[in-house]
Amino acid sequence: VKVVxxxxxxxxxxxxxxSSTWLFFSQEATRRAAARMTFNLAADFSPTQNPNxxxxxxxxxxTNVFRLYxxxxxxxxxxxxxxxxxxxxxxxLAPPNVACNLSxxxxxxxxxxxxxxxxxxxxxxxxxxxxxxxxxxxxxAAALETSFEGRSGFTxxxxxxxxxxxxxxxxxxxxxxxxxxxxxxxxxTVR
Length: 191
What we know:
The chain is mostly beta strands. Strands 2, 3, 6, 7, 8, 11, 13 and 16 form an 8-stranded antiparallel sheet that branches. The protein has a 6-stranded antiparallel sheet with strand order 5-4-12-1-14-15, with no helix packed on it. β9 and β10 form a beta hairpin. The protein is globular, with a radius of gyration of 16 Å.
């Protein structure tokens, strides 16, 4: 099962992916004690491996073909780690990327702020959408808790969550900070 988190560009603004946690409960055939696994996008973020554990960072275009970001960049003295693809920065806006604040402090550049240990998903131009993909390593019941908020100026964008090819969540993100936050908490069966 693949659960895909994407951002949809309405304007080229950053969308902050505040948190995403998956909790998994799988039972053995004998139905003994359940094993519990937790996946947290920010805590699991890797500046050196993509894919990493159950997470993959990449982009899609109008064709919806997922491609991995293949370029990892340390920014601001290593406080931010960013995955990018083969995109030029023609207009001064950041190319599509997935970035993580690895530090214990807020990091701000211009009108964008990264909270400590948070991930941002930045869309690109020409319908390029950044994607964070989680692929279940087990079969069983899963609980998803995730929230998104604008982190740059006045964000006008959106977020979609898919389980395989079915959309399970779609919201607009307008504004910045906690006033723009949209959240999802749900249980799913993964295979």
